[in-house]
Design the sequence.
């Protein structure tokens, strides 16, 4: 399956909506899309994974790397995900403690105020 990525702006944050499968073949596309946002100065990023059917460790690596990148620029990254299959990957690796994972884009935008701001 292919990877679909779209971006939009909402309340000062960049929303990156991802659909399909994130694996060793498609993860570079996600990395490039996120890197383009950071290079353009967009360091408040919400990654919506609700359209993702599968994600392996390569995809997690991309997200961890981009999280470090935006934090180095005093930014933040939130993950929107309600799919149990994807959430399990975060839990197994302990990354559910590293990322702010919420149910909706709206929740992610509110999390900016209530968490690391």
Sequence:
């Amino acid at each position: 399956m292919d990877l679909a990525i779209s971006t939009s702006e909402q309340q000062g944050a960049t929303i990156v909506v991802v659909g399909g499968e994130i694996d060793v073949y498609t993860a570079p596309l996600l990395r490039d899309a996120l890197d383009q946002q950071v290079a353009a100065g967009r360091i408040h990023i919400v990654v919506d994974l609700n359209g993702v059917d599968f994600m392996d460790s390569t995809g997690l690596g991309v997200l961890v790397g981009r999280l470090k990148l935006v934090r180095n620029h005093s930014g933040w990254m939130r993950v929107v995900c309600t799919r149990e299959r994807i959430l399990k990957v975060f839990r197994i690796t302990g990354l559910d403690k590293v990322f702010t994972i919420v149910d909706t884009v709206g929740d992610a935008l509110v999390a900016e105020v209530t968490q690391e701001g």
